[in-house]
Amino acid sequence: MKEIKDVSKLTYTHVQGGQFRWITVSTIMLALGTILHAVSPSVAGVTPNWTIATYCVAINLTRPTLRQSLGIGLVAALINVFTSKSALPYGNLISEPLGAFTCAVLVHYISNLKIGRLNVMPILSAFISTVASGGAFITCLYLVLGLPSNVYWNAMWPLVLMVSLCNAVVAPFLYIPAQKLLARQTVKGQELTDSSDHSDLHIVPSVKAPIVIEHMSYRYGNQTQYAVKDINLVVNEGDFLVITGPAGCGKSTICMAMAGAVPKFYGGTMEGMVFINGKAVTQLEIPDVADDIGIVLADYDTQLVTMTVAEEVAFALENRGYTAEAIQERTAIVLEQVGLTGLEDRNVYSLSGGQRQRLAIASVLAVNPSILVLDEPTSSLDPEGTEELYRLVGSLNRDHGITVVVIDHDLHAVLPYANRMVLIDGGELKIDSSVEDVLSYMYDTNTYVDALPSLFVTYKSLAAKGIDLDTPWLSLASAQSSLMKGER
Ligand code: ADP
Question: Ligand 1: residues whose CB is within 6 Å?
Answer without folding.
Answer: 220, 222-223, 227, 245, 247-253, 266
